[in-house]
Fold:
Amino acid sequence: MKCLVAVLVCVVLAEGMVKIPLRKHKSMREALREKGIEVPYQDPALKYQGNEYGSANMYINNYADTTYYGAISIGTPPQSFEVLFDTGSANLWVDSIYCNTQACNTHTKFNPQQSSTFVAKDQSFYLPYGAGSLYGVFGYDTVNVGGIVITNQEVGLSTNEPGQNFVVAQFDGILGLSYPSISAGGETPVMDNMMAQNLLNANIFAFYLSRGGQQGSVLSFGGVDNNLYQGQIYWTPVTSETYWQIGVQGFQVNGQETGWCSQGCQAIVDTGTSMLTAPSQLMGSIMQSIGAQQNQYGAYVVDCGQVNNLPTLSFVISGVTFPLPPSAYIMQNGYQCSVGISPTYLPSRDGEPLWIFGDVFLREYYSVYDRSYNRVGFATAA
Structure:
């Protein structure tokens, strides 16, 4: 028996239960009332309704400054999974009992047979990523993201994850946050269902990515967290409603314009990419300006003692300059200092040089993704 009465303690005697008054400390409400302050009553159940106000702030995990992931639940009763929150893809999928590869067997698997709300969908899919790929089947179920409950969300259930890429992953699946136009199988992304089901105050989400391997990263839905950035948010339009792709008008080294983006560059803002990724044709010039050398493994490295003397790299976006100091793009692992910039060989769809603003950039700048106005906002991270 459990008795949780404010001023009573329950005592069970042989002849039955008697209630004995118990002297206790004043409640916070009583103490404030004596000072003339009346606290309005609030329903204590409100804390269980994360989407009551149409917004949610989720603390997400930082694994070694390379992966940012957090917990969601799927099904009834809920089954919990760690997923990578990825602005560079559009599908939601998790490991499932249908998969027995090594990658699946090292992670938590969704069991649709244990969910009363799961509905199977006779459709299979294949998803290639920059690293790793998988096969799966789609189904519908209830999904809870930060207390926001989405009904009839399409979920991919993995059936085969070949290779080793996902074996060592810290997550059990990926939650894509880009546009539905790039969704495999025409699946409706989580964000689009949040919008369609009117679950958000505003059709936006935002990321604060912690640095130095520290925790404290935050993903917000339906609003921004003013405590996580300084100054104002600068907006730039999305140039292609596929990825979160934006235009770049300039690239500077120590404040000097290089001219490399004078004819225009494009950039994909991608929380699922660890590095800053540069157009391959510019990679040699960038490394030369940094003074980096390739080691025997092909990685670009610098002398750790010289990091403070390295140049600041800056992007000009919609007339605003966004600097990246060397502390942002140099990764220190023990005695080795490597450059957190890698090449991409893909041009953008319109042929302009393509950058990927991965976590190296996004740790410096709080990023806001606005589906109502199809724009991305950046502000200096707190």
In short: Helices lie at 28-34, 102-105, 190-196, 280-290, 326-329, 359-362. Residues 1-32, 38-51 have pLDDT under 50 and may be disordered.
